[in-house]
Recover the amino acids of this structure.
């Protein structure tokens, strides 16, 4: 198992776990700047890294050199997580089929939103953090 919280150089470890250490075919990176360097270490030659979010922090120490990315011989693709219409369609689908969405086990009231964001920053959440507006 590879845990990015306890293993800062998880990209090399993940790559080593693949057959003959070739690397991962498709890495889905949800943190962006924070994890992109490790995603590039984990991906196989001519593999794909999909940037699907920017959950990580932006700092001067975690910028990704685009030329460095080019030398990993992989494709990097960014995707949007959907339009407003797509969100409405998804909500309707979830409601109609009674899909149970994974959410964090802690709910926050609007006045405690700062604590919710702190939980998110500290990575103590599972999936989505819920802030209720009663």
């Amino acid at each position: 198992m590879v845990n990015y919280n306890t293993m800062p150089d998880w990209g090399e470890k993940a790559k080593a776990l693949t057959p003959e250490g070739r690397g991962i075919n498709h890495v889905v990176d949800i943190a962006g700047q924070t994890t992109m360097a490790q995603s590039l270490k984990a991906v196989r030659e001519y593999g794909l890294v999909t940037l699907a979010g920017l959950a990580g922090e932006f700092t001067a120490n975690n910028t990704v050199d685009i030329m460095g990315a080019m030398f990993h011989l992989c494709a990097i693709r960014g995707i949007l997580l959907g339009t407003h219409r797509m969100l409405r369609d998804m909500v309707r689908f979830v409601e109609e089929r009674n899909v149970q969405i994974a959410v964090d086990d802690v709910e926050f009231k609007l006045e405690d939103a700062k604590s919710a964001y702190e939980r998110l920053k500290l990575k103590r959440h599972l999936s989505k953090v819920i802030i209720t507006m009663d």
In short: The longest strand covers residues 43-51.
